[in-house]
Design brief:
Length: 163
Amino acid sequence: MQKDFYINDQFLVKPGTNVVIDGKISRISRISQRTMQLLCTLANHAGESISKDELIRIAWRGNNNEDAFSQSIIELQRLLRVEKKDMLRIVPDKTYSLQATISNADIDDLKREAGATTPYSAAQAATKKWILILSILIVILALIFVLFNYTWKTSPSSSLVIF
C-alpha cells in the first residue's frame, strides 16, 4: 500500500482510504479505488508523460474498460483543478501527465489534517442539537415571562364589586 502524500502542498492524498483532502477549501473527496490507483500512478511519475496503454497496464492491471477509464480521468480533472488551471495535462487518447510537486506526508501533518477536517461524531452532533434546543426553549420561556409580567402590571386591576 502506498503512503499518504501531498500534491502541490494542497491536496492530501490518502490511498488507504481512497480520500483526497483539499486543504485550501477544506473539502474531503472520496474517489473510487481505480481512480485512486490512477492518481497514485500519475503521482509516481509526476511531470512525465505516460501513455494511456501504460496507465491501464500499471494502474488498472490491464483491465481495459474505456468508459471507466475516461470517467476516472474526468473525476481527476475536476478534483485537481486549481484556480481554473489543470494539473492533469492530457493529449487525448495518447498521453497523460500530472504537472505537480509530490511530497510525502509525515505523521504530524496527518494528525493536524485529521484534527482540522474530522467531522463531528454522532454523539457530538446530538449534544450540539440538544444544547441548541434548550437554548431556544430558555429564550422562549424568558420572553413569555417578560410579556406576562408586562401585561399583568399594565392591565386594570380588577376589583370585586358586590351589588
